[in-house]
């Protein structure tokens, strides 16, 4: 009888490192995926086309006598993880500035290091402006929308393809609403849609007619800057907005957005009692967010 030497049984794998498992939690995995910029999908652009059609047909009076001009900078959307809508809005705004793009996790870390935020919340337009300058090396200004020339400055800024950051009350579908500040949220404005009388003479260079929506014309960035006076004088003004709770692009009347911005009177009482979880300005959001808009440029 011959005997064959059998190979020793393989060693059992070591037990998992529980410290490692805890650090790689589902929340961390999901959060990492949410806070990354992603190229706008075809469905996002399709959804915007539908929204444009509805807005043009329902919200612009005397349409046959109007010419519609549109300009929009498509940013890569970033979904927020936790109460960090301002952080995400600033990270998306960086895509509109020359060679300044930064990641949302980097902005979040810096906001905490600077003592402006605990979880990514930004309840002050002045803190947003400070964070933008620190992170992007850009110039910022906080507009008081009660000033007579602030709306003109905002529109001129948009016509120049520069980012505008607006705090507002966000409804369930993320459009502007009036909740007294209890649903305070940050949006980045990336462009505009305006209506002008057809009688206004426009040079066609830099203007492309839409293939489906015949009253709609798209402007190149250079043409948008050239027409900033006409844009500021438009009777119907809508803005394109992105924010961290949806990848879809909003299209809102500027009037409704500024009304929402002007109603930011108080922090949701449920948040105010969560002592130590948020940094809320001592002067209150009525002086730090209400009627305040942040503009950025190189």
Automatic annotation (TrEMBL):
<keyword id="KW-0378">Hydrolase</keyword>
<protein>
    <recommendedName>
        <fullName>Actin maturation protease</fullName>
    </recommendedName>
</protein>
<comment type="similarity">
    <text>Belongs to the ACTMAP family.</text>
</comment>
<dbReference type="InterPro" id="IPR040043">
    <property type="entry name" value="ACTMAP"/>
</dbReference>
<keyword id="KW-0031">Aminopeptidase</keyword>
<dbReference type="GO" id="GO:0004177">
    <property type="term" value="F:aminopeptidase activity"/>
</dbReference>
<dbReference type="GO" id="GO:0006508">
    <property type="term" value="P:proteolysis"/>
</dbReference>
<dbReference type="Pfam" id="PF21646">
    <property type="entry name" value="ACTMAP-like_C"/>
</dbReference>
<keyword id="KW-0645">Protease</keyword>
């Amino acid at each position: 009888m011959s005997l064959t030497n059998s190979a020793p049984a393989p060693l059992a794998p070591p037990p998992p490192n529980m410290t490692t498992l805890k650090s790689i939690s589902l929340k961390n995995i999901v959060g990492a995926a949410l806070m990354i910029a992603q190229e706008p999908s075809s469905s996002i652009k399709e959804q915007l086309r539908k929204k444009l059609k509805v807005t043009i047909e329902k919200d612009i009076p005397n349409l046959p006598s109007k010419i519609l001009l549109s300009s929009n900078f498509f940013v890569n959307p970033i979904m927020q993880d936790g109460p960090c809508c301002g952080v995400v809005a600033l990270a998306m705004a960086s895509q509109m500035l020359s060679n300044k793009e930064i990641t949302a996790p980097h902005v979040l870390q810096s906001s905490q290091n600077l003592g402006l935020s605990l979880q990514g919340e930004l309840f002050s337009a002045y803190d947003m402006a400070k964070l933008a300058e620190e992170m992007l090396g850009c110039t910022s200004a906080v507009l008081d929308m009660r000033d007579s020339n602030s709306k003109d400055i905002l529109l001129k800024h948009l016509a120049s393809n520069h980012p505008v950051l607006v705090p507002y009350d966000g409804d369930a579908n993320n459009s502007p609403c009036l909740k007294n500040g209890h649903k305070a949220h940050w949006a980045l404005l990336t462009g505009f849609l305006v209506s002008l009388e057809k009688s206004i003479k426009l040079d066609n260079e830099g203007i492309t007619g839409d293939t489906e929506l015949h009253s709609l014309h798209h402007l190149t960035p250079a043409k948008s800057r050239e027409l900033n006076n006409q844009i500021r004088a438009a009777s119907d003004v809508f803005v394109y907005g992105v924010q961290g709770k949806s990848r879809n692009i909003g299209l809102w009347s500027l009037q409704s957005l500024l009304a929402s911005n002007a109603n930011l009177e108080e922090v949701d009482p449920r948040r105010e009692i969560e002592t130590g979880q948020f940094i809320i300005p001592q002067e209150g959001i009525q002086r730090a967010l209400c009627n305040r808009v942040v503009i950025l440029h190189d």
